[in-house]
Amino acid sequence: MSQLNAVVNINLQNYLRDKEPLAIALSGGIDSSTLTLFCHQNQIEYAGFTITGPHVTDFEIQRVIRLRNEYGLNHIFFYYDYRYYSNVIKNPHDRCFHCKSSLLTGPANFFSSTHTLADGSNYTDTLGHRPGIRALKNLGIISPFVDLKIDKSEIVEMARRLGLKAEEKDSRSCILARFDYGIFLDDNLVLKIRKAEDYLLQQGLTGFRLRVLSPEKCLLQINSQNEPLFKQIQPGFDTLTKQIDLFPYEVDFLPFSKITGYYDQF
User: Fold this and answer.
1) Measuring CA to CA, which residue among 25, 265, 246 is closest to residue 142?
2) Are residues 191 and 244 in the same domain?
3) Most buried pick, 29, 50, 72, 84, via CB within 10 A?
4) CB 44 within 8 A of CB 169
5) Cα-based distances in Å from 203 to 141, 230, 233
């Protein structure tokens, strides 16, 4: 371990020990998985929790279950249904604030008297449009990686040292964020996007987003590095999208940095 990594490791341990016991929002992505596993391997008292619902693919739920079972994590599930919240389904520019405010209220109430709630947001997240971070602060949820200015590259290195498998390192975001701002979150269309993305994930594709640019137009963005794999699985994906009425769709291969946060780049 380099001297820099050792300093980050010690600072993070000291920070977390001062806050324990923690309740960590575990989505199964690299940031939250790294934070949870760091606590687990460093004997920092914690409880992991995952929020499921129509906004989460089956693949992501299964990934959390595999992670929990493989490492013997202390973990529970909560259920959330965005369809009960008008400020979410209207899909305004600050949708993530409204969504996270309602989504995390249940766990916050459940753990408030016993644990410090924490999430895996990293310092890089604070450099873009992230209204969800405001919701975390309002609910008193801490973001250790943000507070210690630990960025994505440092988390990737930390994940490697903790032994996270490649399939546990993919960066995902909520299915609801596939919709351009102002497009009503129609339940039927949300479930179609969920099913289509779940298919691609089950086939091993990473670094992609199936965007809803309008109710009639979808754009599949794929990390350029994964173009060969998509070409192999495209016939099956085309069959599925025809069955669920998402065909035809447009495809764009580009660097992942141009994919994530797509709607906030304009």
Assistant:
1) 25
2) yes
3) 50
4) no
5) 35, 9, 7
